[in-house]
Design goal:
Layout: H1 3-25, H2 34-44, H3 53-68, H4 86-110, H5 121-130, H6 142-160, H7 174-196, E1 201-204, E2 223-226, H8 233-257, H9 259-264, H10 268-280, H11 302-325
Antiparallel strand pairs: 1-2
Helix pairs in contact: 2-3, 3-4, 3-6, 3-8, 4-5, 4-7, 4-8, 5-6, 7-8, 7-11, 8-10, 8-11, 10-11
């Protein structure tokens, strides 16, 4: 075999391998059962499932999935095929944002009886590790920092299930749940706007609406043109899928750990509706690419379909927060 043929064969093998890995690594991870996951983790520590175990277990498994799915964590890859797989990278980013928000809420309120009480040391360590940049390849690596966060959350889970009441706690109160949902509402609202902006339109500037005395730092036009750049449309779409994937598991966990609170507020139906809307975002995308047709055009607009589910979930979250805030 000539040297030229050997080089061509090697290049073809390399490209074929990269293509196969690209297809495999780009698959969205499957859903998981939050109660079974919590039970398995508790059993590994020789504990029973206690209040907060399901929510903590869902956070653990979400971080684990982000790090150990096919291809591992690829947002910081510097070589093919991970270097060019932007869709799954944005999926990872959506999951990462939700894990950060839940970890912060657990650190700030769910693990503390009052605002003046001491924060849990493991959760205090996990939050900054999760907030590390997602594109650092080495010294330190992003996945190394997220692994440290995972170890911290596991440590909290282990202490939560022991017999020492002062070691770790989880407080399933309406105000704690409402605070976290406020952050979720903000995230989903922003995603819905960015998804809808796949089709450029002028919108009325409502930044100061509702408050006659409201002012802003700089003057702004009465109408604002918003459009997501064409090369960012699929990025926003897959970020939304990652966000919804993580969030629907966290909400299923909350449904278990905050059962009495939700029952008292007659809010179970509202939560189930949010979960149903988010589950719809995980349907298989049969198109080889994210299409961006107009609202009533011949071709579909996948971003607008995703925005519909996200917006409806967000509207239900607003209603749920209203229920939780009532005495």
């Amino acid at each position: 075999m000539s040297k030229k043929s050997l080089l061509i064969g090697s290049a073809a093998l390399y490209l074929g391998t990269c293509l196969g890995l690209s297809i495999w690594w780009s698959q969205d991870p499957d859903a998981f059962n939050v109660q079974t996951t919590a039970a398995d983790i508790a059993q590994a520590y020789g504990h029973e499932v206690v209040r907060g175990s399901v929510t903590t277990g869902a956070l653990i498994h979400a971080i684990e999935t982000m790090l150990t799915k096919p291809g591992g964590f690829i947002s910081n890859d510097i070589a093919p095929p991970g270097l060019v797989l932007d869709n799954i990278k944005n999926w990872e980013y959506g999951v990462l944002i939700q894990t950060r928000d839940l970890a912060k809420s657990m650190r700030d309120s769910m693990s503390r009886s009052q605002s003046q009480s001491q924060e849990d040391p493991s959760l205090a360590s996990a939050e900054p590790h999760l907030n590390f940049a997602n594109n650092s390849w080495i010294f330190p690596s992003s996945e190394g920092q997220y692994q440290e966060a995972l170890n911290d959350v596991r440590n909290y889970f282990q202490r939560l299930g022991d017999d020492d009441a002062g070691n770790a706690q989880f407080y399933a109160r309406a105000d704690n749940l409402e605070k976290w949902l406020q952050t979720v509402e903000s995230r989903l609202g922003s995603l819905s706007q960015r998804l809808s902006a796949s089709v450029g339109k002028e919108r009325i500037n409502t930044d100061l609406a509702g408050d006659a005395e409201a002012r802003q730092a700089k003057p702004a036009p009465s109408e604002v043109g918003i459009q997501t750049p064409w090369h960012k449309i699929d990025d926003v779409f897959y970020e939304a899928r990652g966000t919804a994937w993580a969030l629907l598991h966290f909400l299923k966990a909350v449904e278990v750990d905050f059962d009495e609170v939700l029952r008292k507020k007659n809010a179970h139906i509202s939560l189930k509706q949010i979960i149903r809307e988010l589950e719809a975002t995980q349907d298989t995308l049969w198109s080889p690419m994210v299409l961006n047709g107009g609202g009533f055009s011949l071709f579909p607009n996948h971003s607008l379909v995703m925005a519909n589910y996200i917006s409806r979930a967000n509207a239900a979250i607003i209603d749920l927060r209203s229920l939780l805030s009532r005495g």
